[in-house]
Amino acid sequence: MVSLEVPTESPCISRRAPSEECEIAFSHDDPTLMWKDRTTDCVDLKKVFSKFDSSAPISGEILFRARFLCAKYLGGAWRKVKIEEFRIRAITGGMSNLLFLVELPAHLTPIQMEPEKALLRVHCQSDIDQLLSESVVFTLLSERNLGPKMLGVFPGGRFEQFIPSRALQCLEISKPGLSKLIAPIVARVHTLDAPIPKEPQTLQTARQWLERFKKTPAGERPIEMYLTQAKVPKSDIFQYPSTITVAQLERELNFVEFFLQHSHSPVVFSHNDLQEGNFLLIDGYKLADDGTVLTPDGKPTNDDPLSLIDFEYCSYNYRGFDLGNHFCEYGYDYNEAEAPYYKIHQHYFEVEKERKVFCEAYLDEVYKMRACGDNPHFPSDLVTGDREKDLNKIIEESILFMPVSNIFWVCWSLINAEESSIAFDYGAYGRDRLALYFHQKKNLEKYLSNL
């Protein structure tokens, strides 16, 4: 989960020499002279970059390692950059990765096809299978012009095309003008054929996170349930426990699994993290009050002004998960500089008009692609041909899958609270989403009782 916000001030860089533990890839005088190539060591790379502190200058260890990665994987003019010329900025907003913008100094121009700027992404998670799938998906989507281009990949991270842009904000994505642009992107993602396992991965992933959490000291004791940003009706206070154990969470996942098996939601290739920070508004465009994207001279555009990023959680999944998760994100706001680093606009979970606008735009794109007939992998069960029936179905899915999204990210929050070095109150976030899961669980119970 990441939003791209690039500081406008000068890069904050420490010129201190790296510690003895850091194997420097270049000498000060000759940046092409390698001492020892340790970038194949994923654990070491993560260790170095996890020392990043957003409130302090970028360390010499990170500076030297980033410069070597640029020379090796971007090549060309990047091999000529001296230490005093190297330009690197931390990009804020990452909740799952560390992100940096690297730039060639002004006096150097590309020699071949290497970029003048690039986004350096260092993965904080260590699931090798997940990282491999994510890299494959990233490449596929970039080839389909659904995201940034891949510039280089290395164990523990990659270089991506830097798109001059800003991340959308929480209170923007529900506006009808933007919703009509986001929904077709989601529809196009759902019709892709990706070379990864075709079975839904939601519950498997959540259980893996919970199993890892269970092995931590925090996982051995009950979780105290108190709310930080979420608000629930007083009648709901008795619907979620004052404490909850891993065993109880496992039972809730079993209940969710039973719902999924009876949801009749088609399985499609899914992004699984359609939050505001993963949609970029390309520089040069501006937003009207209703979310309509305008050119600099104030006219509506026919171009594609949005770019979808961050495919870390992509997998095949129930369509309803992407829909429900996106509507959850109408209310979760991560643009907070102070602890707990998020807030919740809870009334946005109940919107009806905005939900219908999105679902209609989604169906417009799906039916257009279906009529075109040039996708041999178009999912046959995505629509029925009865548009009104399809609209009612996806609106229902988008509501029912909101608690599924909540408990999925609860499990993610629990393990990140124990393992992540990123400044975010994962514990509070997980408790809030768990309370909201119990608040919305009644929708699943009602659905199942009517089967």
Write the layout of secondary structure elements.
Blueprint: H1 42-49, H2 60-73, E1 87-91, E2 97-103, E3 117-123, H3 128-143, E4 150-154, E5 157-161, E6 165-167, H4 176-190, H5 202-214, E7 223-224, E8 243-244, H6 246-261, E9 267-270, E10 279-282, E11 286-287, E12 293-294, E13 306-308, E14 315-318, H7 319-328, E15 332-333, E16 343-344, H8 353-372, H9 387-400, H10 402-419, H11 426-449
Antiparallel strand pairs: 1-2, 2-3, 3-5, 4-5, 6-10, 7-8, 9-14, 10-13, 11-12, 15-16
Helix pairs in contact: 4-8, 5-6, 5-10, 7-9, 7-10, 8-9, 10-11
Keywords: Kinase, Lipid biosynthesis, Lipid metabolism, Phospholipid biosynthesis, Phospholipid metabolism, Transferase
Protein name: Choline/ethanolamine kinase
InterPro entries: Kinase-like_dom_sf
Poorly predicted tracts of residues: 1-35
Q: Count every helix, treating DSSP H or I runs of 4 or more residues as helices.
A: 11
Kindly report the CATH topology of the largest domain. Answer: Aminoglycoside 3'-phosphotransferase, Chain: A, domain 2
- Going by CATH, the homologous superfamily of the largest domain would be Aminoglycoside phosphotransferase (APH), C-terminal lobe
Q: Summarize the biggest pleated sheet.
A: 5 strands, antiparallel
Q: In what order do the strands lie side by side in the largest sheet?
A: 1-2-3-5-4
Q: Based on the structure given, which CATH architecture of the largest domain is correct? A: Alpha-Beta Complex
Number of domains: 2
Compute the number of strand runs.
16
Average residue pLDDT: 87
Helical content (DSSP H or I, runs of 4+)? 25-40%
- Measured distance between first and last alpha carbons: 35 Å
Radius of gyration: 23 Å
CATH class of the largest domain: Alpha Beta
